[in-house]
Amino acid sequence: MASPELLVAQSQVRLQFTTRDSTLSIPETGPILAPTSFRRPALSALVNNLLESEKPIPLEFLINGSVLRTTLDDYLTSHGISSESTLSLEYVRAFIPPSFVASYEHDDWVSSVDVLSSSSLAATWSGDSNPVLPGHERILSGSYDTRLRIWDTSSNILATSPSISNGGHESFVKAAKFLSPTQIASSGRDRTIRLWKYTQDSDSPESPSSLTPQLTLYGHRASIDSLAIHTPSKRILSASADGTIGLWSTSKSSSPEAPSSLLPSSRKPSSSSSKRRKPNPTPHNNTPTPTRGPLSLLKSHTDVATSCTFDFHDPTVGYSTSWDHTLRTWDLTTSVSVSSRTSSSALLCVAHLPTLSLLAAGAATRFVTLIDPREGAARVAALTLRGHGNSVSCLARSPESEYGLVSGSHDGTVKIWDLRAAGGGGGSGVADEGVDEGARVVRPVYSISRRGWEGKKDPVGGEGVKVFGVCWDKGVGIVSCGEDRCVQAHAAGQRQ
After folding, report:
1. What is the four-CA torsion angle of 341, 345, 350, 355, rounded to 10 degrees?
2. For the chain, what is the total number of helices (H) and then of strands (E)?
3. pTM for this one?
4. What is the pLDDT at residue 276?
5. pLDDT at position 190, please?
6. Which of 261, 274, 300, 423 is most buried, with most CB under 10 Å away?
7. What letters, b where the CB count within 10 A reaches 16 and e where it falls short, cover 123-134?
């Protein structure tokens, strides 16, 4: 019988550790022998020992770009690799489990959420002109009660948009974004996009603030459910239930006149007009809010347009999704759809993953599909993210990792994904309905439930807790909102 020492020697493999994170580099060494029984925690401890870390840093390990989820022995066996080989392992900081930070109660459903912090795009685009100081982080929410609210991170309301009669939205707010630390854009069921001036009364983090209407944009003929912004070019993209994508300027002087047929003064009275307040509101200073129209309306979708986004690197390129099952790429300089990718179901939301040259699209069939938008791509779906139990309504990419993504769903959960953790299609040998044939499947790393339902039986289909909006900020964390009339903030990210 072989000695125990020989059995140990036979169950080891040579490992070569690498990393692209300069702060985690270990001294150059040759391959290190490690037991094939090692999993991620043991490998993480081994690298931390080599780093001589005072405080252990949780690490993940990649082999050929995919996260190691098994023992080394299982990996070698499943891939037909001899233990005599040298296995190259790239290590990266692991995503930390999300932890609840705060909640922000509303009187009605909350449809949209955004964050202003020193690392957010709105602040980054503004440069040093309007820095966001520590402790001055802000959360913006848009609600079905027609109001926008700005909160501090201690759940205090600092500003609320005015009522309908004072320049506010006439119906549900469906989307809201910070354009800069001093300007906000919002849209809603009233078919308008509204620009707001955000003013804080003093430098104190708790000081009251105000939202003043600046400009109202008309052009769509149905609810405007999604906004994308690019402050440096003064451009806004919108997706509407009328099936069109709108391109707008935030500059009044650069925008055409609003279509007269869509202005409040030209609307025909409806059966519900007696229940409405007077349209064409006049704000606090008794000066009517200026109105303008779109630079262009992009028409190719054959059904409701659900979401839109700018290309992260090129603001002359836009992307949109629709109930018509397509994801379209737009040349915004010519207002032409230059490519279209068709999925197996209606697409409800989209996020650009610039480093990977992919688009993440949330579907009505519970999945998130990573789509290569190029017409010449060999396959439409590069990856399928499976784990939700209902329609995927919103997406946001990680501010720290090119492979991190968060999704919100009508099942009442927010899920965190590591796109490197991909397995084979279906994962169990059984085809998944809605998963494109040949697409690799990714399972969520973590799941966040609505706090009011923790410890209770999961609601059927997410009834009462549907998630409508999500944002991922480096400082504030993952912020989500939904049908439970609440905004939730969770600390999340990568261990520093």
Report:
1. -50
2. 4, 36
3. 0.86
4. 41
5. 97
6. 300
7. bebbeeeeebee
